Amino acid sequence: MEEFYRIRRLPPYVFEQVNRAKAAARNAGADIIDLGMGNPDLPTPPHVIEKLKETLGKPRTDRYSASKGIVGLRRAQAAYYERRFGVKLNPETQIVATLGSKEGFANVAQAITSPGDVVLVPNPSYPIHAFGFLMAGGVVRSVPAEPTPELFSALEKAIIHSIPKPIAMIACYPSNPTAYVASLDFYKDLVAFAKKHEIFILSDLAYAELYFDGVPPPSVLQVPGAIDVTVEFTSMSKTFSMAGWRMGFAVGNERIIAALTRVKSYLDYGAFTPVQVAATAALNGPQDCIKEMRDTYRKRRDVLVETFGRAGWDIPPPAASMFAWAPLPEKFREVGSMQFATLMVEKSGVVVSPGVAFGEHGEGFVRIAMVENEQRIRQAARNIRRFLETGVESLHNVVPLANRR
Q1: pLDDT tens digits for 58-108?
Q2: pTM of this structure
Q3: Would you say the C-alpha torsion 178, 342, 327, 317 has a positive or negative sign?
Q4: Which of 96, 181, 306, 341 could be joined to 354 by an S-S link, Cβ 3.0–4.6 Å?
Q5: Cβ atoms within 10 Å, residue 349
Q6: DSSP for 278-305?
Q7: For the residues of 309-333, what is the DSSP string, one character each?
């Protein structure tokens, strides 16, 4: 029987091979250090949890909630943007709450995409940036992920050679998976480009508060006039370690926000009201927990770079995000990222994400998530050192597999 249309547009699940190896190792009793999924291990701040408890069971809180987000939550997000970026937003027309930024991206694709519409997507990039539009019937054209002049050359070429003309381009800085960071000057050029060619910018700013070198990443909405062409997605998953709470936002251009809000009104009733109230408390409450979170990830980054380097694997220190984007160790580069990640699980008990999972231009890299404490990262480095010292030539089937490519 023929596969369903949207399912045909999705490739096989790229993490399946690594997940199988992880499950097999765990079933055999191995101690697995999972640095694969960007799943925050830090606790949600106590005042947020207390607000959730306080709200549970109150009159009307168990009923359907507002799909676009309760008024207080949207006002809190507007206050955050003004406080953090100096950007003023109308909570009624320029903000909608989402069930995490991932859901927001998927549904904005449904809202604005006609069959065959072209969207420009960085490669490598977080999978929903491409597959949200593929599932909506769109066509994805890859452009470089790094915010350099070469990106604009590629964008210009894509505009010229794409039929029909692209409707939107994705920006994600700090980037998942590469940890690239964009400057405000870059965003000024990006907005000028979007206006010149009359296309939208869809910006993923999920890692806005996870930076390590003292310079907070900007929002593209800080560029004067950017709101004419831009919608930006943020998330509470990393900033407040609320990944499982599923709370995020889309803000910016009123036309796109209205379209997203309308689509969502048919698909969901919004997050559980006590979760929205607790999220409001997170945004309006004490922000020292954000600095503590940032300091924790900075220490983990430093330990990761130092200990993996001593183990024989040089990792470029990321300036932001919770990920390190690591080139494969030299003697494993012919193996490929998928096979390398599988071997890592089997031979060292350490899980990383193969770069090819984020697009074909991610080949040659793996993404390492800093979601274990410093002691576990040091243990991972010790395991990896033993693995790297064995050498690819001593691992059965690896070289033949590589040579058959």
Answers
A1: 998 999 888 899 999 999 999 999 999 999 999 999 999 999 889 999 999
A2: 0.91
A3: positive
A4: 341
A5: 20
A6: HHHHHHHS--HHHHHHHHHHHHHHHHHH
A7: HHTT---PPPSBSSEEEEEPPGGGT
